[in-house]
């Protein structure tokens, strides 16, 4: 959490939790890349083996072999870049739960990011969803927060331990409601309205 020490808006705001998507989510996205790399490796190796066999009809010129190597390098590079994009998206999609708000930082590609904030006072409902055998076995799922604001709904997608997150958000919501009902808070609000 040291990397977020300057994140808080006020000196008494504490960071309770920093949440990334579950590791299985990135693992699922890397499986097609791994299969693609295996397919390319087998395909290039097979074509190169055919060119070195003296009984085949394929011309074994150096130009043909160089073209296969170049094709392999380009395809590996495409797989690497796609894998890097997945990693950046995974690592930079963050939900930060503080003592006064929830911040959703959503990375979309390399050059697009959306940052949304939600104060606990605007929460109307919090639900957690865990669907499927894998989600249940690995204990990850979604937490949906229904708000009264313009966003309508905040969603923590594929996070570990969604029940724990739901419980924490509900606890902080109740604290915010109790603080708002406190007489000192009401007095401060009246003073602010009187000065404006």
The biggest beta sheet, please? 4 strands, antiparallel
Give the second-level CATH assignment, the architecture of the largest domain. Answer: Roll
Query: In total, how many domains does the architecture comprise?
Result: 2
Number of H- or I-type helical stretches = 5
User: Any idea of the CATH class of the largest domain?
Assistant: Mainly Beta
Q: Order of strands side by side in the largest beta sheet?
A: 1-2-3-4
Dominant shape:
elongated
**What does the radius of gyration come to?**
26 Å
Structure, explained:
Helix 1 packs antiparallel against helix 2 (62-92). This protein is elongated. The strands form two sheets. A four-stranded antiparallel β-sheet has the order 1-2-3-4. It has a three-stranded antiparallel β-sheet with strand order 5-6-7. It folds into two domains: 2-21 and 95-195, Roll (PH-domain like), CATH 2.30.29; 26-90. It contains five helices and seven strands, in the order βααββββαββαα. Strand 6 (140-147) and strand 7 form a beta hairpin. The model has no long low-confidence stretch (mean pLDDT 83). With 196 residues, the chain is of the alpha+beta class.
């Amino acid at each position: 959490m040291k990397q977020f020490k300057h994140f808080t808006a006020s000196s008494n705001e504490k960071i309770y939790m920093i949440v990334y998507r579950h590791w299985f989510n990135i693992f699922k996205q890397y499986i097609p890349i791994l299969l693609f790399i295996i397919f390319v490796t087998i395909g290039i190796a097979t074509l190169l083996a055919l060119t070195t066999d003296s009984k085949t009809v394929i011309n074994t010129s150096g130009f043909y072999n160089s073209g296969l190597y170049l094709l392999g390098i380009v395809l590996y590079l495409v797989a690497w870049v796609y894998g890097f994009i997945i990693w950046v998206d995974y690592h930079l999609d963050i939900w930060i739960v503080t003592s006064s708000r929830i911040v959703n930082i959503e990375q979309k590609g390399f050059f697009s990011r959306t940052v949304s904030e939600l104060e606990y006072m605007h929460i109307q409902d919090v639900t957690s969803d865990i669907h499927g055998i894998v989600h249940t076995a690995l204990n990850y799922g979604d937490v949906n927060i229904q708000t009264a604001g313009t966003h309508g709904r905040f969603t923590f997608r594929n996070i570990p331990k969604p029940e724990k997150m739901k419980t924490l958000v509900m606890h902080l919501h109740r604290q915010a409601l109790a603080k708002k009902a406190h007489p000192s808070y009401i007095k401060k609000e009246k003073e602010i309205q009187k000065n404006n």
